[in-house]
Structures are given as structure tokens and as C-alpha cells.
Amino acid sequence: MQANTRNSFVISRALRNFLAASILTSLASQLAVTTDAVIVSHMIGPDAISAINITMPVNILFSCVSILIGLGASILAARAIGQHDNNKVNHIFSVSMLLLALLGIAVSVTTYIWSEEIISSFCTDTRVYPLAVEYTNVITAGAIFLIFSNGINYFVSTDGNPSLVARGVVVGAVANIILDIILVHVMGIAGSALATIINYTITLAVVATHFRKKSSSYRLVNPLRGLARQCMKNIYEGLPLMLGNLLLGLAVLAINKMILSASGADGLYIWSICLQVLMITFVVLNGVGNAMLSIGGVLVGEKDYNGVRILTSLSLKFVCSVLALFVATVIIYPQFLGYIFGNGTGQNIQGVDNALRIFSLLLIPFAVTLTMRFLFQILEYRILSLVMSAGQLAFIIACLWIFIEVAPGKLWWSFPFSAIMLIAIQIATTLVLWLKRKNISPITLIPGKDNSSIDLSISYTATGIEKATAKIREFLNNDVENKTIEVYIENLKRIMTEVIDMSCDKKHCFDMHIKTIKGNVTATLRATGKKFVETEFTKTLSHTVEFKYMHGQNVLFIRPVK
What we know:
Blueprint: H1 9-43, H2 46-54, H3 56-82, H4 86-113, H5 115-122, H6 129-141, H7 143-158, H8 162-187, H9 189-207, H10 227-301, H11 305-332, H12 334-340, H13 352-360, H14 363-378, H15 382-406, H16 414-436, E1 453-459, H17 462-479, H18 485-502, E2 509-517, E3 520-528, H19 536-540, E4 545-550, E5 553-561
Helix pairs in contact: 1-2, 1-8, 1-9, 1-10, 2-6, 2-10, 3-4, 3-7, 3-10, 4-6, 4-7, 4-10, 5-6, 6-9, 7-8, 7-9, 8-9, 10-11, 10-13, 10-14, 10-15, 11-13, 11-14, 14-15, 14-16, 15-16, 17-18
């Protein structure tokens, strides 16, 4: 392959590398949650899984704090990394760590003090309430560890080290499974909550080792300088994602009450299994979301919108293909999931299989909508992302209410119906925005072709470099008038030649993205494979090139020339 228009190879490799670690992280996290449900349902009874379901809004509150402060700030950090602004990266990180610590302690103390009052507002069922209170009393006491661990994970993944996050989460999840079996036997449902806290504490200890490495982009600096302004930026960036998570908790709370009222404890049990099925799909969705926010955030920081377009296409294809297999499995073998979550092991509740088949039809349209929300977030369509979050859950609740009132026997059909309706509204909304701004793509809203940048996929050959150099020279000579441009082009050529010598993956290609902004020229080179070994030549380029190994790629930021 010679120097051609950008292809998907390098970004596809980055996505696969990130997804492998990120999905493993999500899988281990969900395994810890699912294990709680499975173990307590078998060791205590079906009411125990309902109790954990009832407490889910409390856990979602803890996640909301992590998302508001940690995930929002990590997106800002990703853009700053793409802009090569190390001072900005460090300040964002330092302010976020301070806020996570302060808010984490405040939320943990407050929810612990008011735990019984919180649960009484969620549930009055005499079978479920005592178990829910017992679980909540323990989980709120250790909320600081859940909040801080999740916040740290976002930053480390964004810094191109999702594999370390995966290792930490896997170690914590394995400990959670072992401790669940032991502690539930000794302490009942409170033992499951304690095992969860220990899980997050172990994860935090493992992942925090990233910050001791020289390759880490983050250094603690004085967070008090410009604290208020940076706090507002962090919160503003994380607000749509946090509200989406918060609304999910409120939606679960509302649905719990509606189904409990309409179908009693048995209906709540069926809904609890359906909710676990939805949580299983978040293994894939969280993996894809983290990849889009991290990889996409850096690409947006570089204004590499062609790369964003490739990333979005690959992500949607992956989500739809994986979930299609999962939905088919649920439709064919619903009784297997019912058995895993305790149905038929002691108390056989009718209607589980049919409800699971119907509910599974929600998953693909729900996943597509969520994936597009991640895209709109990195493109800074925050209001649209927020409206979609609210709309997605409002539609589910509204449709459920209508079905309960009109056709209570078919209430499970409300879930796929609401998801399909939201997809239609989302497409219509984006088309309206596209008609108003013709420089963006319809549906995805990604900015169109930018004449101030050039994208190349370059083969690992001398001919490939020569063709790339010719295209770069033509682009820069047309866009920038400066005597130093030729020196910059020759420097790029030398760097590309050195990449060929250092790379172990020469069968395919590497990417080059060059951008001009007000006469300044910046370039980013991405090459897949093992981490480059420093040579005498690369040492001489230390004042010209900033090197990072992230997302399984060697990334070279060639500093701007004026």
C-alpha cells in the first residue's frame, strides 16, 4: 500500500487493542455485580436479588460522582493530550483528584447516615426492605473507594493504558467472587456489600501504580490555581454523562415502583433479571464508550475528524454484531438466564422466559443510541447528549406507564417499543441540525472535509515515504507560505524513515495527520506494534518530537513550526 487517503487499519488496531482491555474491564466489573446477584439469590433467595436491585440507585449515585468529576475531566485531558498541552493536562488531573477526594468523603458520610431513610423511599415491601437496608448500610460506608477507584480508572485508560485498568479490575473481581462466597455465608447480604468494597479497594491500589511511571501524562500540581474555573470546566464536561447515569438510576427506581405496583414481588423479580441482562450488555457498551471517549477525545483534540469518522463506524459495527449474537442467545435460551438468577432453583416464577425474549429486543436500538451519545459528547454536542439521555429513559418510563394502563399483560413490550421510537426521533433531530449546518455529516454530525488538514496512510517502503512527502509538500505549499516549511518537510521525511527502521509491523501501514492552524503546522504519526526502542536519532529529535506509547501504538507528536 502506498501513500493514499486515510484507511481504517491503524485506528482499527487502536480500537481492538483498547476494546480488548476495556471490555475485559467491563466484563470483570459486571461479573462482580452479577456474582453478587447470583450468589445471594442462591444462598439467600430470590428476594435478595430484588434487594440488590432496589439499592442500585444508590450505587448509581456513587457512579455519578465518578463520572461528573473523573470521566468529564478525563475527556478534557484527552483533548489536551491531543493538543500536546502538558501543563493543561496536569492541572485538569490535579483538580479532579482533589474533587474526587472531597466529594467522595462527603457522599459516603451522607448516604451512610441516611441509608435507612433512602431505602424506605425506594421500597416498602416487607420481604425486600430489611435485606435492602442491610446491604446499603455497608455499601455506603465504603462509597469513597468506589468513587475514587472509578475516577482513577478513567484517567489511566485515557492515558493509553487500559490494560493496567483491566488487570486491576480483574484482580478485584476475582477477590470479590471468593469473598462473596465466604462473607455471604458468614454475614448474609451485608457480606456481599463488604466484598464489593474490598473489590474496589484492590482495584484502586493496582491501577494507581500507573502514576509512578515515567510514561504517565499526569503529574500533581497545585490545584488551587484557577480552581473554580477548572472545577466548572470539569463539571460542565461530565454533566451530560453524569445526568445520563443519574437518570438511569431514577428510571430504575421508577420502573421498580411501577412494576411492583402492577405485578407485585414476582414482577419485580422478573424485572430484576431483565435489568441484569441489560447490565450484561454494558460490558460491551462501556468498553466501546471508553474507547470512543479516550481515542476519540485525542482525535478531536488533534482535529482529526476523518479518524473520528472511522472510529465511529467501527464502533457501531462492533456493537451491533456482538449484541445481535447476544439477543439471539437470549431468545433461544431464556431459561438458562432464568436459572442463573435463581428461577426454578427453589421458587419457580412464571413468565420469566417470555419477558426475557421480549426485553432483549430493546438491546440493539438502546446500544446504538448510547453509542451515538458518546460520539456527540466528544464532538462537544453536550446539550444534544443530555437531551438524548433524558429522552431515552423518559420514553422507557412513559411507554411502560401507557402499557400498564392500557395492556398490563403486555407491559414487557413497552421496552423495545420505546427504544425504536427514540432511534427515529434521534435521526430526525440530527437531520434538522445537518440542514442548518451543511459542513457536518448527517446522522453523526461529524465535521466534513477540512482543507486545513491532510490524512495519509503510508506503507513501510521508501516509495511510500516519497509519495507521502510529495503530497505533504503539495499540501503545505498551497496552505502555508514560509521558508521553514521545506526544513519541516525534510524533518518529517527523516522521522518517517526512522519509523520504518524501528517498526516491527511492516506488512501494513502507519498514519500521518498534518494540520495547519493560522500558519502553524502540527503533525501526528501513529504506528502499530511494539513500543519503539530509543535510538541515537530519536534522542536528537527530543526537542522536536514528543513520543507516547498509547492504545497499543507508537504516537509521535511532531511539534509545530511557524
